[in-house]
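Risk register update: the risk of archive-format incompatibility is retired. Evidence:
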Amino acid sequence: MARNEQLIRQHKILQLLERARFGKTLQELVDDLVDELGLSGLSDRTVRRDLEALQAAGIDVDSHESQRGKIWKLGPGTKGVHKITASATELIALSLGRDLLTPLMGTVFWQGIETFWKNIQEELTEPVWDHYQKYRQVLYVLGTPAKTYTEQQGIIKTINRAILEHRVVEIEYQAIGKPLATKLIEPYAVALYQSSLYIICGYPTSPADKSGADGTSAPAGTAPIVNLKLDRFQKATALDHWYKPRSHEEIDEYVRSRLGIFSSPEMREYVLKISQRAAPWVLEDPWRSDQETEELPDGSLLLRVQAGHDLEIIPKALALGAEAEILEPASCRDAVREMVERMHATYSRPAPAVPAPAKALVEESSAG
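Archived output:
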């Protein structure tokens, strides 16, 4: 069993016990875990082991007999464990992190963030809160898009459940500029990248290659790892087909080196020459964490960067205009030349008249 599954269950058990003033029976915990984690089933023995693991970790989880049966509840020692205090500077740091995670609003991930934030507020003294408010009047977090995943709550819950159970998922996916497509995926993880959620997954070759209701699995590592943007998911259904999970190291390597809106199983090296004038911008805001730079005698910069698709590099190069030149690969250089030629043709002719806004046309028609 994957370690993260145990941790998720144990964390959820703590949440359930924190909300239960009079505690819960083992069966009540099992039923609540199945419901809130979207599991297909869970044994009493597994939950009992989780409770014992929490006790072994030093968390005050007590049990006693009652008319309802054996009751599990948090003991008085947990109040000291969960007591929260924060200085004004710590609160500012926490609030900045919360602002950066606003794309998670409306998801199960955001619920924990908001609960923790509320607990922090309740524990603060008035002077500390006033000091924090003054800082927040002059400190802003900008650059994060105003987007949430409230409408995808059901899809996220299905994906999370499938990750825990290692189940194949059938999705309806609407890629930009392409027709709606039905795909089968093996979901491995969820990643937050540049304010968007991505599903790290693999493509099984066909449903027949996956297991049936008997629980057998297809060989591990048969599906190449890709990432799909959650915004483009229209529907997700967990199937009764299972897969063997990838290793944590394999998923971690992919996320750190290949995650992005333009992903590819194969990475290529791109070489660019950045002018002396633009070099400080590239050094100040790196395109990737693993980029390599070399200062040339004339003060310009030779930039080497790995990417899975030309469109991850071309917009960055074009943003610098004539201050950046793609040297390799030749196919990417040719693609930029074609783009520039089309742009030159567009801007060489007189600009067409700007159409009047539809509202203005309606008002003009009414006035006539």
